Amino acid sequence: MAKMGFAPMLSVAVLLGTLAAFPAAVHSIGVCYGVVANNLPGPSEVVQLYRSKGIDSMRIYFADAAALNALSGSNIGLIMDVGNGNLSSLASSPSAAAGWVRDNIQAYPGVSFRYIAVGNEVQGSDTANILPAMRNVNSALVAAGLGNIKVSTSVRFDAFADTFPPSSGRFRDDYMTPIARFLATTGAPLLANVYPYFAYKDDQETRAEKPSCSTTPLSSRARRWWTTGTG
Fold it and tell me: pLDDT by residue (tens digit) across 58-83?
């Protein structure tokens, strides 16, 4: 695939930190709520833990009814993923997108939705469904009077072929360029999954910086966010 420049269309500013020591200027910390594990606490306990630790933002990887019910009234800002398995139907059918918004967002008026991630690290032929699905979900949100909820997608950090200097930034694959243009028109951020610990683990000699946990930062116009966790 040809490398396509994106700096003129979308300014990407990746914001990283650690739970142990994060910059004083960061006013919001978000933690990913992964559920692939054993003996996990229930959603209500998780929400209470967030609130007790001052964590005011969360990401969930699918429309989890139990988590959404627990979040109602908590004022915890939420990124919610659209499962990759839903991309095809949402891309091909505006009515399916409207139904998804009705069942998973409008049905939970007490939840502080901030971003919808349409796909997570999508690869292969399914990448063709990302932008049509984003458009349909965005249109459904606007039609429902929920245009304040921004629609994006979450990419692997290696989606960027060049990252320094920022003015020379390029996407690795062609399909990202129209997605960047769409995000620029809606004012939504691009979501990137970043795992600095693994980079450090594989190359400790040349990476003097302190390793940090897995992160999912928001970029572009998003407010400052810091997250950790896996799906």
Answer: 999 999 999 999 999 999 999 999 99
Residue closest to 191 by CA, chosen among 24, 13, 68, 62 = 13
Q: What is the pTM of this model?
A: 0.78
Query: Domain map of the chain by residue range?
Result: 4-202
Q: Please tell us whether the domain made up of 4-202 is placed in CATH 3.20.20.80.
A: yes
Q: 164-176: b or e for each residue (b if 16 or more CB lie within 10 Å)?
A: eeeeebbbbeebb
- The pLDDT value given to residue 137: 98
Tell me the longest C-alpha to C-alpha distance in the chain. Answer: 53
Strand partners, 231: none
Is residue 179 within 8 A of residue 220, CB to CB? The reply is no
Q: What is the phi/psi pair of residue 222, to 5°?
A: -70, 155
- Read out DSSP for 158-219? GGEEE-SSGGG-EESSTTHHHHHHHHHHHTPPPEEEB-HHHHHHH-TTT--SPP---B--B-
For every residue of 135-154, DSSP letters joined together read HHHHHHHHHTT-TTSEEEEE
> Rounded to whole angstroms, how far apart are CA atoms 180 and 127?
14
- Gap between the terminal Cα atoms of the chain: 29
